[in-house]
Prior knowledge:
Radius of gyration: 24 Å
Number of strands: 7
Structural class: mainly beta
Largest sheet: 3 strands, antiparallel
Order of helices and strands: HEEEEEEE
Number of helices: 1
Helix content: 10-25%
Region (Disordered): 1-22
Low-confidence stretches: 27-35
Distance between the termini: 29 Å
Protein name: Low quality protein: tumor
Pfam families: TUSC2 (PF15000)
Shape: elongated
InterPro entries: FUS1
Mean pLDDT: 77
Strand order of the largest sheet: 3-2-6
Amino acid sequence: MGASGSKARGLWPFASGAGGGGPESAVAEQALVRSRGRVVPPFVFTRRGSMFYDEDGDLAHEFYEETIVTKNGQKRAKLRRVHKNLIPQGIVKLDPPRIHVDFPVILYEV
């Protein structure tokens, strides 16, 4: 499983000070974040799309083309994955917004 959280220190005011320092370093780190004047919401409204557009304008995760292979006098059709001339989908709006992976909240149902 890959880590999907942000690794940069000082980007999130609610990030833990996991660096060996005591509570003083965590407070100092949060004070530095607050001094920038940047308020970070706990929600994610957009994400990077994982699909691609091909030359025809079709949208998919993967594209294949059929090729005819002649082997021992017999024609066979094979699928070959297309890697060229694909355009990334770009930014996708999330509806509804998601909670950020680094937001320290425990969700439970009563």
